[in-house]
Structures are given as C-alpha cells and as structure tokens.
Amino acid sequence: MYKAPDGTEIFVVDGHTHFWDGSPENQRNIHGKQFVDCFYAYHTALSPAEQLWPKEKFEKYTADDLYRDLFIEGPDDVAIVQSTYLKDFYKNGFNTIERNAEMAKLYPDRFIVNGSFDPRDGEKALEYIHFMKETYDVKGVKMYTAEWNGASRGWKLTDPQAYKCFELCEKLGIKNIHVHKGPTIIPLSKDAFDVHDVDYAATDFQNLNWIIEHCGLPRLDDFCWIAVQETNVYGGLAVAMPFIHSRPRYFAEVMAELLFWLGPDKLLFGSDYAIWKPRWLVEKFWAFDLPEDIARERGLELTPEIKEKILGLNAARLYDIDVASRKAALAASPFSVAAE
Amino acid sequence: MSTALSANNRRGELWARLTRVNDPELDEPVTDMGFVERAEVMQNGSVEVDFRLPTYWCSPSFAFLMLDGIRQALDGLSWAPAYTIRLHDHMFADEVNRGIAAGKPFSLIFDELSSDQDIDALRETFRVKAFKRRQEAVLLALRKQGLTDSEILGMDLSSFDAATVGGDEAEAMKSRYREALIERWPGRKGCEPAFVTWDNREIPPDAFGAYLAELRAVRINMEFNGALCRGLKATRYKEMDVVDGEPTLVDFMLDRVPPRNCTGRHVQR
After folding, report:
1. How many domains does one find in chain B?
2. Are residues B139 and B176 in the same domain?
3. What pLDDT, in 10s, does the model give residues A276-296?
4. Full domain range(s) for residue B55
5. Residues 128-187 of A with CB under 8 A from B
6. What is the CATH topology of the domain spanning A2-332?
7. Residue A189: closest CA among chain B residues belongs to which residue?
8. B193 to chain A, minimum CA–CA distance in Å?
C-alpha cells in the first residue's frame, strides 16, 4: 500500500518483477554472465546512487530480500512475478516458474506467478502449457521472443507454432500475455523485439490481453500505432519508469505519448525488480507532474486518478483482483503492520 | 621534428574521419558515444582501431553498420595505410574479427551471419530517422528564436543558411541537418525549400503540429537508446562519476577506495 502525502491509500500492483538466479554457479556460459551483467548495468545506470546493490547480491538475492523490498520497505500490495527461463544461458534457468512458485508459496496472497513457454518446442510447448495451468493455475505468461533455443535466436508471435500455443492459452483461460518488447539485444538476422507481430497476434486473439512490457521502447512510435487500434493491447512501464529519476523531462515525453495514444486505462506500473526497487519509483511517480509545455501541447494531465489506475487498478482489472477485499485482507496481515 | 609533426597530423586526420562515423541508430558520432576505445597510428604508419559497444547484446546489424563506417573512414585516409579494426566484448566479435582479418568485405561477413536481412534497407531506415531527428531539432530551435511557423516553413535554403539558431549545439545540429538534406537531394539549390518531408513534400503550416508530432516520436525513440547506451557503457566500463568528490557505493563495490576508509560506512548501510 502506498500512502500518498495527503494520506490517500493507493493500491499498488507491481506488474513486472523477478526472482532470478544469475549467479556464476548457475551460469552455463559466457552468455549467461553477459546477460546478468547487462541487467546490472541497467541497474547502475538508471538507479539513484543510494539504491545500488553490490554485484553479488544482484546476481542472486533471497526470497526475504524480495519480500522486504516489495512489500515491507516497498509499497507493493501484489506483485506479478514473471518467468524467463533462458535455459541456454543458465543451468537451472534464470527465473523459472518452479523457483518463482516455490518462493510465492511462502507468502500467500502477495504474488501472481506467471509462466512462460517456448513455441519452438512444438508439441512439448502445448503439454507444458497444460502442465502450468494444472500445477500453478497460471493467469498469465511472459513471452521472451529473443530467447535462444538451440540454433534459433528468436521467434515471432505470428509463428504458426506460437498461434497454436495462444489458441490453447485462450481455451484454458490464460488470458494475460506479457510480451517483452524492449531495447534491442541479441538476434542478428531479424530483430526479435520488433513490435509489428503484436499487431497481428492482438487482432487474431481478441480474448487475450497483450501487455507489451517496456512499451516497445525504443520503438515507441510503432507500439503506439499498434496499441491505438487494438483494444486489447496494454503498455507495461518497466524500464520506462526509472527515467523519472535520471531524465525526468524525457520520462514526461514518453508518458505524454503513451497517455495521448493509449490513454490512462491501458498502462501498467512495473518495477522490473530486482533491476529497480518499487519504492522510489512509486514515490517519484506520485510526485511527478508533466511539464506545463508538454501537457499543453498534448492537452493532457497526469492526475492522481490516472496515477492510481496506472499504479494498480488497471492490472487489478486484468487479473481479476478484487481491490476492496484484498485491501481488507492485507490490512489484517501482520506484515503490513510491521511496515508501519 | 617533421616526423613528429606528420605523426600528429595523421593522428588528427584519423580522429577527424572517425568523428564522422555515426551510430546509425542514435545518429550520434561513435567517438562521442565513446565506442572507439583506441585509435592509433603506428610507427610504420599502419592504423589500429579498437571498438567496443555498450553491451554484449547490442544489435549485431548496428555493430556491422558502424564497423563498415569505420572501414570507409580508414579507406579515405590520405596515406592509405594498412589497418586493423577489432570489435571487443561482443557476442559476434570472433566471427566479425575473423572475417575482417581474412579481408572479407563486410557485406559478406554480414551475409554469413544473417541471410535474411537487407542491410541496405536497414541503412535507409536509419537515414530517414537521422533526417527527421535533425530536422525536428532545427525546426524547434528556429521556433525558439521567435520565428513564426509560416516563416520557418517558407524558408529556402539560402535564407536557412543565413539564419541563426542560437547556441553551439543548435548550430551543430543545423549543419548536420543541412548535410542530411544535401545527401538526400544533392545539388539542391538556394531557392528551393529548406524544409520538406522525406518524400520531398512541402509542409503546410496548418499541418505543422501533426508533422512535428511525427518527428517527436522519432526523437523519443532515438533518445531512449542514446540515454540507455551512454548509461550502459559508462557502467560497463566503470566510468562512474564521483559525486561531490565523495566516493559512492559504486566506488566501494569496485574497490576504488582504501578498505579502511570505507568499512564503517559500508557496514552502516
């Protein structure tokens, strides 16, 4: 719960968090080392100095660290923990559903654990989707289209095998498809983070929600064009958020584009923990106003009501979280008392 | 004396050429971005260039375009030296360096790594983006100077050349825009419009707002990459700033302060 300076209590759903193991013991090869190094560079490049972690802790942190940073020191009420396997880079995977679910069991009611699958696995992928639904009752999945798999270094949402998987997701009620579309890394021959495949997938699967993590940045223009015509496309703000600290005016321009094109009901807060901790992001976001010239040019306002939607209500809607009853349950929890 | 002088001249010429190589995605010189780790004229006149990108995962096609730009820059050196270009710490560094060492043309190296991407189309995409970004910067600068939209859009190339845009940065962008304009339409005359769309259409004043919005979207994307790349490169290569002369946590983490001075503070955290 985030308590605004005026005392208002804001329900926070952190749409994009991780419980990863990027430690040297788990790294399969140089790619695994470089992957977590790159995350660490994001962490150091865009965090306030007092928020920096030592490398060793960043590579592998405990469930207690995560719980404290999100829910006790941090303002999250519910966190969606995403799974990203990267089995070609990490012996036990980077951030698997097993590890996430094991951790989430310790803290019931706090986490929504999302799964992941790789359509390139063919029939096995379909079996795995069934497995995730039966074992973990997943409501959503994280798609990492630039993930390596043997000789393949990326895939598209529009691949025929991917469509088979999405058909199954729809059938089983796995309705929230988080797709990583972020800064350009990895694939050589085609840019696996290009956002155009979202256009087709979102049109063809109207019953699924397509949450585009990192808003397609740096392909924000492409993303906005797609999102504005697809009612089921949402923007996840992870990675865009921390610019609020290092480049606030730039952050304002990105927010203005998103609010102008997508509107306030289709944006989801995400800290991308452990790259960034939610507390300073939420505090700065709550205190943030669009500069007057940008607001005027776009005819926009970033009101407290809009911020409240972005920080939690939009995600609550997608994940069928009953905010009132969840608030009541959390108020009775000893952990939130300890945080006061 | 004259040898030293000529070595200096050669060094100057080398860097002058390298500063004209742009990161295609950011439209900023690779030298400004700090990607050229080392560029040296050896005793025998040969040239060595070491190149490093902000992340191991930087798009290899972009890396390719920059290395190709460097190759062209070195091909243009007045003393026609032998040269080596090395890419470091990149997922495809080995393949690329082997290819360069074997004297393969870049297009061949690229084709071997990627069979289905049209590098010329990619180049064209970036050319369009650079044109738009530079144009927006100049348009906004002219507005800031107090010119009306009609005055700005009505400028021909001669009056554009005569205009002042205020500030070194804006002036630099003005000349970069001019370059992009002339590259797009070589032989453009002084009496022709200074501001047109990439498709050579004139921009009517009543559509100016919408057009600027389109340009702004291009800039926002490019700035995202620029800000990210600079930050990533700085942290990857530990070019940390010292805040107010005091060591920061990063300094402690990197053992840049004597342990006895930092133990107390470190533990207190």
Report:
1. 2
2. yes
3. 999 999 999 999 999 999 999
4. 2-117
5. 183-187
6. TIM Barrel (3.20.20)
7. B114
8. 27
